[in-house]
What we know:
This is Glutaminase. Helix content is 48%, strand content 9%. By secondary structure, it is α+β, with helices and mostly antiparallel strands. It has two domains: 3-62 and 203-303, 3-Layer(aba) Sandwich (Beta-lactamase), CATH 3.40.710.10; 66-198, Beta-lactamase (3-Layer(aba) Sandwich), CATH 3.40.710. The strands form two sheets. The chain has a five-stranded antiparallel sheet with strand order 2-1-7-6-5. Strands 3-4 form a two-stranded antiparallel sheet. Helix 6 packs parallel to helix 9 and helix 7 crosses helix 9 (187-198). The longest helix has 16 residues, at 3-18. It starts with a helix and ends in a 5-residue tail after the last helix. Glutamine binds next to loops. Residues 65-66, 98-99, 118, 163, 170, 198, 263-264, 289 line the site of glutamine.
Amino acid sequence: MNIEHATKQLEQMRQEAYAYTDKGKVASYIPELAKEDPCQIGVSVCLPDGTILSAGEADKPFTLQSISKIFSLIVALCQNGQSYVFERVGKEPTGDPFNSIIKLETIKPHRPLNPMINAGAIAVAGMIRGKDVEERLQSVLELLRKMTGNPQIGINEAVYCSEKKTADRNRALAWFLKDSGVLTGDVEETLDLYFRHCSIEVTAKEVARLGMVLAADGMDIMTKESVFPAEVARICKTFMVTCGMYNASGEFAIDVGIPAKSGVAGGILATVPNKMGIGVFGPALDEKGNSVAGVKLLELLSKEWKLGIF
Ligand code: GLN
């Protein structure tokens, strides 16, 4: 790949996608996120040798939100193994919004359908071990620090407090899970861990690097060490295809065709197996909670560079 030419293309596509930033709205149910300027769009691409290409707001920090569900799942799988995890959370897409409660009651057994929706990720947070919430969070932070090579990765306190104060819906999901026997420990502590890992702050550049590690089956591209097993990476990438873009995952698979996970702060992590990781930041969201300009940009990029995996 000619880096100079590719960077120019990236900038052109970013400009084309910029026109879509006024077609969405920033998330407002977490009051702190409502302060973000919707007219931003940044993208970074990380290649197997660690080279990073960027355009737009690639160094602007934002919170992972639902993107963190991948990393809590990695920790839970590494600590507990597949059978323990998948006895408590399923592997099926829901077709419902990410914070929906309905199928927790209507589908038996009463467990969340997958770990990429809020109920599933809260169940996964309940599986992360440690003597207290600090130690449990630490295992997620350590994973992200290793994967990005940035030992400073931490949480955005303002976003964390803002979500914790307003998270009635997530609290309802968690207590329902407790009633169904999916959550067994201290519910408020598990919710606290969930809010904290959602508030971990990153940039699009770092997200691109996270995507590259997943693309390399869990291998740290700089040290060539395995950070987590290839089997765990395979599970994550499969969930990203089937459930990563919430109830727009089918459409995204057809239009873009790359495993991806979005978050309500406007981030999208995309991973092209063996080829590259992509990080996008565009806080204006569509009605399903995905970055409008971010999805557009990934669509352009996938077509231009023929990245679709199908
Ligand atoms: N922290 C957010 C929530 O629980 C994450 C949701 C998301 O990014 N879709 O509502």
